[in-house]
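Task: sequence design from structure.
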């Protein structure tokens, strides 16, 4: 399918690996020029070069902490005029409610709620002026069904979801569509951290921890970054103009809900 976005320009956050990279590659395959951001310069530049070589699109790599005001300013200056924004950040660590204090919540809010909001605040006016734009926020299945050990993520990402619910409907009439992608368990570094937590909590091997996690997924496996990226690219396409303020699960059926 021709997504109709060849020649557009996108900023994809946390895109040196994992779900962010999956989104970046799918957009590049559709002909979108990219601005990639992550904190690690070496991994980011390697990813940028691979995408340039494979897809023949322009790729600008900006190594910076997107949650830091100065880092975010550098990224936005390099990004320039954007048509597409994909916000993404690693989730805070798992734990018990008693583990976290105010600073832990502030850090989670900065990364998973306030940074995406700051990026949208900066970029939406330009999209509105052009009469076209796409924003995809990578959040989590936990906003639909909270995960007990991910209280920090539950709180911060649900706050972002509430913000998007209103904002998406304010800008939809200007040709700008904002939606959220809610990943379940995908084959990324984040999964290894969660498997490690299961392994320690239940005193089992990593292989057994993986089997335990797979048993909760009707698909019987983790998702791939390619599957995730394909959905992101579709939401950024010309075909997604009537999708507004939605929270789309990619979780292999793990969230047991009708609506």
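Answer:
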């Amino acid at each position: 399918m021709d997504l109709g976005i060849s020649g557009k320009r996108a900023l994809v956050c946390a895109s040196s690996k994992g779900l962010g990279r999956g989104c970046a590659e799918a957009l590049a395959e559709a002909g979108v020029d990219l601005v990639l951001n992550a904190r690690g310069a070496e991994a980011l530049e390697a990813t940028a070069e691979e995408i340039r070589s494979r897809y023949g699109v322009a790729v600008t790599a900006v190594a910076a902490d997107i949650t830091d005001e100065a880092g975010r300013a550098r990224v936005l200056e390099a990004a320039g005029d954007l048509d597409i924004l994909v916000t993404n950040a690693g989730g805070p660590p798992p734990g018990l409610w008693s583990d976290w204090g105010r600073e832990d919540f502030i850090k989670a809010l900065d990364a998973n709620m306030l940074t995406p909001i700051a990026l949208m605040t900066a970029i939406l006016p330009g999209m509105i002026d052009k009469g076209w734009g796409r924003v995809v926020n990578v959040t989590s299945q936990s906003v639909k069904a909270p995960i007990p050990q991910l209280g920090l993520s539950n709180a911060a990402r649900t706050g972002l979801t509430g913000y998007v619910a209103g904002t998406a409907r304010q800008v939809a009439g200007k040709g700008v569509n904002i939606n959220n992608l809610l990943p379940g368990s995908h084959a990324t570094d984040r999964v290894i951290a969660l498997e490690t937590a299961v392994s320690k909590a239940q005193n089992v091997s990593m292989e057994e921890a993986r089997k335990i996690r797979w048993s909760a997924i009707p698909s019987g496996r983790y998702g791939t970054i390619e599957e995730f990226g394909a959905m992101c690219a579709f939401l950024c396409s010309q075909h997604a103009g009537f999708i507004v303020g939605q929270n789309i699960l990619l979780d292999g059926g793990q969230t047991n809900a009708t609506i």
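Residues 102-130 form the longest helix (29 residues).
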